[in-house]
Description:
Blueprint (H helix, E strand, L loop, with lengths): L2 H23 L6 E3 H13 L5 E5 L6 H4 L2 H6 L4 E5 L8 H9 L3 E4 L6 E5 L2 E5 L5 H4 L9 E5 L2 H17 L1 E2 L2 H12 L5 H7 L4 E6 L5 H10 L7 E5 L9 E7 L5 E12 L2 E5 L11 H17 L9 H10 L2
Parallel strand pairs: 2-3, 3-4, 9-11
Antiparallel strand pairs: 1-7, 2-5, 4-8, 5-6, 6-7, 10-13, 11-12, 12-13
Helix pairs in contact: 5-8
Amino acid sequence: MTSSWRIFFKVVCVAAMCSYEIGEFSVSNNCFVEGNDVAQKVIELSDAGPGQIILAVAFWGTGASKALKLDELASAKRDVTVLCDLFSQGCNPDEIKKIIDLGVKVKTLSGYHGKVYWTEHGCLIGSSNASNGGLHFRSPGNHEANAILTDKDTVNELKKWCLSLIEKADIVTHDLVEKAKIKRDISGFSLEYLEENMRDKVKFALWSDPVTSARFNQAMSEWPDLAGGIDVYDGWDGFEVGDVVIDVNCKSNGAVELSYYIVTRTAPGTVFTYAKRFPIKFIQDKIWQELNSKGHRVLSEIHQTKPTALTFDQLREELQKLD
Length: 323
């Protein structure tokens, strides 16, 4: 065989190997992907062959499930799991409801911020959320940077990481979606509006003695997956995941300070909430005025062995006792 024929033979063999690898994954191996190409590349990875699909993407926006063709995956009975942070401002509860209605399993993990589109045949990882900003399916979005990884060891390592988080996460139900919608829609509403429209979804937590730093640190060690930005109610009853909590801090100087939180996790006697204060217009509300003048007395009159979150009706009843 001449030298030129040997060179030609080697080129054909190399080309055949590349073709096999590309055919196996339906996409080129280990490549850079910008935001406007992400949805198509994820679809190609999903279509590359059978197997599990994990969409561990923190934030989902309107239209994302359609852009990623989750309806087709659901119709084909593919094993798809979505991991998100449902109670974050970046996650649209209505879009999550659409995904649940397709029959796709969805779980939520407080503080989750990753963007991993994982399949048995490779995964896409980077900065793109499942939103128009991240996927550009309606209009130009953000400047995103992503990469496709097909190395089997890396793909398997990412799978283990995703599954470890999914195991810790809470299953998303229609009821939890409704509570997330309340959290998303509540900013700027008055207490009177909340009482009229969300009476059974809002709980009041009256307190004066904060949880000790030692107990807080113990709680964090018990629940290591809960990152910063979390507050702890120790020994409380009456909370459910997704509840809107009006936190009533009866301060030592006689003043009452109100904040608004969302319950993210409950355990026997311990409740974890987002430790972020959301704006609510209290000053003009009658109930705010009553709390400001009677909060300490209500706290002392309840005489409970365990602190309990009060509904609007229970709080009204306690306030009326003091008239």
